[in-house]
Structure formats: structure tokens, C-alpha cells
Write a structure and sequence with these properties.
The chain is α+β, with helices and mostly antiparallel strands. The protein folds into three domains: 100-147 and 183-309, no CATH class; 311-395, Beta Barrel (Elongation Factor Tu (Ef-tu), domain 3); 398-513, Rossmann fold. Helices cover 46% and strands 16% of the residues. It has 19 helices and 17 strands. Strands 5, 6, 7, 8, 9, 10, 11 and 12 form an eight-stranded antiparallel β-sheet that branches. The protein has a five-stranded parallel β-sheet with strand order 15-14-13-16-17, with helices on both faces. A hairpin with a 4-residue loop joins strand 1 (35-38) and strand 2 (43-45). The protein is globular, with a radius of gyration of 29 Å. InterPro entries: Adenylate-forming_domain. Residues 1-21 are annotated as: Disordered. It comes from Mollisia scopiformis. Residues 1-16 have a biased composition (Polar residues). The chain crosses the membrane at residues 106-123, 155-180, 186-206, 218-240, 255-274, 294-311.
């Protein structure tokens, strides 16, 4: 089952080749296209060569009408063609820089900061920790939640874009974008067990158990339960679980996390209303309201609930141009660089996809869902009429493109879903899209959006099926960087392609941000 729609202003017929003037192609032995590129100031014409020889192009062997004498090689075998030159290996320093990125720097800093605090508290050199262990526990939890909250991250992007784009030098902008892209390191640093939260929790529980003779059993029990729930929730978010068993990750990280939040409330209320020095329960509200732990718990709850308040079931139209891809169309336009989460149910199996839109005033926005797992396969096999989504979209690194004067957006395959809006909504961004049989795989809607809004001189569409292979993407980026005058490159690709381009850009001195896989 498939459906298609007509898009206002999108051409569904044949499109001009967007690569004319960049990569020539030969259809005949006697003629070339008469016009390579039309410039407003001048026109460059290619004169037809009337010769016995066909013009030489990439991948084409010159042919001649002159008889050729056939000779045999000694031994009857022709020599093997020379092996292609191996690509230069990146230096160890470049590999280390890419490995120890800002994400890991944040992660390491948060872990070390917490470990230093724990050691100082154990040596009685940190009085605040001894008196407010619960506040340190919940402070880490709140930091982890904030770094994954859609509203908070959108706020960071807004103040960064509007605060820097008109005056800041490129080096400052690059540093800020790196921070915005890698704030997940703070999330992981605050949340991973054995590093921050779990050790503060364990430290607090051990401290309570040491005073078990005067501490109430209910406080001890809720403390242990909270500790266990938080550890399970954090362990379920390890990459090898999250990437290979997404549903297991989602169930445990979300629902066990919610139970952990409820247990935290019980722990905070019981711990702050029981006076273990006197062995009595305090009934006055002032003792509870003046506790730091209570307000940490309040803000944790608020930031967890805010995205869920924007949850809606919305109508969707599905176009299936091929068995590999489903194109989802939603109502209303959206600004560039945002991603959305969708699900068939209200609270389970949310998956994030890049959003394509012509602008805020556009009637529609789109998501490209490549078939990779059960959820995306079901979109092709059983297209839905409606899906659940959060109206509050979250910002990807591409959202920071508004900070730069000119840039390059390179993507492979379904990565066009995260990249296209930037180049549609800004005339100062160059699109490079590498894929196989793009027109047939992704259909007329995506092709129409590209050709309607992006000029041929501002894009390279590399069809590896037509061209017989993938390009040298690093060389392509170098050439485009020089000719377009770019300040930055944003990459959306699989892990192998991302690593290759990031290493090449770093070696060439090009400023690039790639796809991030949390470790």
C-alpha cells in the first residue's frame, strides 16, 4: 500500500540534472550538451567536437573509428592494472582528538568532579556533602535530566544563535557548537552508575545504615529502593543495550526511571521529616519546604513532564516510493535543524527522525524513515493514518547552522532527512547528497523539494549507482570548501562514512561536525 500527494510548487515531472557543470556525462559520441551553466553575467558554451574520437570523461575509455591492430601479450596474459593508491592514514593525534571529543571531556570532568567530592566527604573535608548528601544526589539527577530536555536545549540554541551570529569570530562559534552538540556528556557523566549518582546514593545509604539504630526503617528502605531503581535505569542506557535492544532500553530507562522518581519523592519526604537525632517525625511544613532536596525533586519532575504535556496524536500521510523508505507528511511548517520523535502508541517505542520543511509558514513538514528495524518496516508494510508525537521538537546540531555565514551540509542515504531543511531554508548552505538511485528510492516529493528550492550551483547529488561507485568524499569537501567559501561542515552519515570524512576534514584543517554516537 502506498499513497502519494501533490505538493504546491513541487515539480513531479522530469527535473534538470543538478550536477550539470560539475560532473559532465556523455550521451552520444557526436555531441555534448550545448550549455554547461547559465550565469547571469555570462554564458559559457561547449562547442561540439566533430572528431573521430569521443570526448574523454571519468570512467569512459576513448574510442576510435581507426582500425586497431590487435597484438598479444607475452605469455598470453595482460598485466594487471595498477592497484589504487591507498588512502593516507590519519595520524594518531587526529584519531585521539576525534575519540576524546567534547562529549568525553564533559563526561570525564563530571566524573572526576564527583569523585573528588566523594573522597573529600569521606575524609570529612566537605561539610556540605555530609549535611546535604541528598541535595548532591538530586543535583546530579537534575543535571542529567536537563541535558536531555527539549525545552532547555532549545533555549541554549536560541541564546547561542542570536547572541553570537552577528559579531562572534568563527573560532568562538565553533566552540559553542561543539558544546551544544556534546552536552550529552554531562548527561552521561551525571547519570552513569559507579561514577556520579550511584556513588553519591551509595554514600548516602551507607551513611544512613551507619546510623540505623536511630534512623527509621522506612527511610532506609526507600533509600535502598531508590538506589536500585536509579542504577537499573542508568545501566539500561549503556550503548550496547540502547543500540541493539532499543525497546528494552526504552522500557527500563523510562519506566524504571519514573519509578525511581516516585521513590525519590518518598525518600526525600521521609528523610526530611524524620529527625533521627530525636527519633521523632516532624509535622511542620517548614522543615520540608526549606529542604534543598525537595526543590531539586520539584524541578526534576517539572522538566520530565514538560515534553509529555506536548504529546499529541496527529494525522499523517505516508508515501512509499520504494521498499526501503517511507516518507511521512505532517501538517504545519517547522524551522530547520529540528528532529521529531514519533510512535504508534502514546508512551512506547519513540523513534527520532530529521524533519524536512520549507519554512515555518509552509503547510507541511516531512520525515524520511529508512527501513532498518521493526518500527520503520511497519511504516512500509502497514502505513499508519495517525501517529503520536511531541509537538515540542528537539534541536540537532544542524540547528546551529544559522550561526554561520556559509557552510556545507553533506549527507548519505536517509541522512538527507536531517540535512535538507538547512539548505532549503538558507541560501548560504551547500548540499552534497551521496546515495544510490536517489530519484527512484526517495521518490518525486523529496526530489521536487530539492530542485524547487536549491539552485544547481548550490548542490551536488551523487548517485553512486549511475556513477559506478562512491566519490572521494573528502576531496569533494575540499573542493567545495574552497569554491563556496564555507566556514563549517555538518556531516550526517553512517559510522564508517562519518569517521572517514571527519578524519579527512581534521587532517585538511576543515571545521567539521559529524554524527555523534554516545559511548
Amino acid at each position: 500500500m502506498s499513497s502519494s500527494w501533490s505538493h504546491g510548487g513541487v515539480h513531479n515531472g522530469s527535473q534538470n540534472d543538478p550536477e550539470k557543470g560539475l560532473y559532465a556525462s556523455t550521451e552520444s559520441l557526436v555531441a555534448l550538451p550545448s550549455l554547461a551553466h547559465v550565469d547571469e553575467k555570462s554564458q559559457v558554451y561547449i562547442e561540439t567536437l566533430r572528431s573521430q574520437f569521443s570526448p574523454i570523461h571519468e570512467g569512459i575509455t576513448p574510442s576510435s573509428s581507426v582500425p586497431v591492430l590487435s597484438l598479444s601479450w607475452p605469455g598470453g596474459k595482460a598485466p594487471k592494472p595498477p592497484a589504487p593508491k591507498p588512502k593516507p592514514k590519519p595520524s594518531r593525534w587526529i584519531l585521539f582528538q576525534l575519540w576524546f571529543n567534547t562529549y568525553k571531556k564533559f563526561f570525564t570532568f563530571v566524573i572526576l568532579l564527583n569523585l573528588v567530592g566523594i573522597i573529600m566527604a569521606s575524609l570529612n573535608r566537605f561539610p556540605y556533602a555530609n549535611n546535604h548528601l541528598g541535595a548532591l544526589v538530586l543535583g546530579n539527577l537534575l543535571g542529567a535530566i536537563l541535558m536531555r530536555n527539549e525545552m532547555f536545549l532549545r533555549f541554549l540554541y536560541i541564546i547561542s544563535i542570536y547572541g553570537l551570529r552577528s559579531w562572534a569570530p568563527v573560532c568562538i562559534k565553533l566552540g559553542v557548537v561543539s558544546i551544544l552538540q556534546h552536552v550529552g556528556g554531562i548527561h552521561s557523566g551525571c547519570a552513569l552508575s559507579g561514577a556520579a549518582i550511584a556513588r553519591w546514593l551509595i554514600f548516602k545509604i551507607v551513611n544512613i545504615i551507619r546510623h540505623r539504630n536511630t534512623q527509621h526503617d522506612a527511610v532506609i528502605a526507600t533509600g535502598i529502593i531508590t538506589n536500585l531503581l536509579v542504577i537499573i535505569s542508568v545501566l539500561s542506557a549503556f550503548p550496547w543495550i540502547r543500540n541493539k535492544h532499543h525497546n528494552i532500553f526504552e522500557r527500563h530507562h523510562r519506566f524504571i526511571g519514573w519509578l525511581g522518581l516516585a521513590a525519590t519523592w518518598c525518600f526525600v519526604i521521609l528523610g526530611d521529616t524524620y529527625d533521627y537525632t530525636l527519633g521523632v517525625w516532624r509535622t511542620d511544613a517548614h522543615a520540608l519546604l526549606s529542604a534543598q532536596e525537595l526543590w531539586f525533586a520539584v524541578f526534576m519532575t517539572i522538566f520530565i513532564l514538560i515534553p509529555w504535556f506536548t504529546l499529541r496524536e496527529v494525522p499523517v500521510e505516508v508515501e512509499i516510493p520504494s521498499a526501503k523508505v517511507a516518507i511521512l507528511r505532517f501538517n504545519r511548517g517547522i524551522q530547520q535543524g529540528l528532529l521529531g520523535r514519533i510512535s504508534r502508541t502514546s508512551i512506547m517505542e519513540y523513534h527520532a527522525f530529521g524533519i524536512i520543511s520549507e519554512g515555518r509558514k509552509s503547510p507541511y513538514h516531512y520525515m524520511i524513515c529508512g527501513v532498518q528495524g521493526d518500527f520503520t518496516a511497519s511504516l512500509v508494510a502497514d502505513p499508519p493514518k495517525a501517529v503520536w508525537t511531541r509537538e515540542l521538537k528537539f534541536a540537532g546540531v544542524g540547528h546551529a547552522s544559522a550561526m554561520f555565514k556559509r557552510g556545507i551540509r553533506i549527507c548519505t542515504g536517509t541522512g538527507i532527512g536531517a540535512a535538507l531543511s538547512t539548505c532549503i531554508q538558507s541560501p548560504n548552505w551547500f548540499l552534497i547528497w551521496i546515495g544510490s538511485d536517489q530519484e527512484r528510492t526517495f521518490g518525486p516529493t523529496i526530489s521536487g523539494l530539492i530542485h524547487k528550492h536549491i539552485e544547481p550551483e548550490r548542490m551536488i547529488l551523487w548517485d553512486s549507482k549511475k556513477r559506478g561507485g562512491r566519490p572521494d568524499s573528502v576531496q569533494l569537501l575540499k573542493d567545495t570548501w574552497e569554491s563556496f567559501g564555507a566556514e563549517v561542515i555538518f556531516i550526517t552519515s553512517n559510522m564508517q562514512g562519518n569517521d572517514e570524512m571527519m578524519q579527512g576534514c581534521r587532517a585538511a584543517g576543515l571545521h567539521a561536525f559529524g554524527t555523534l554516537w554516545d559511548f
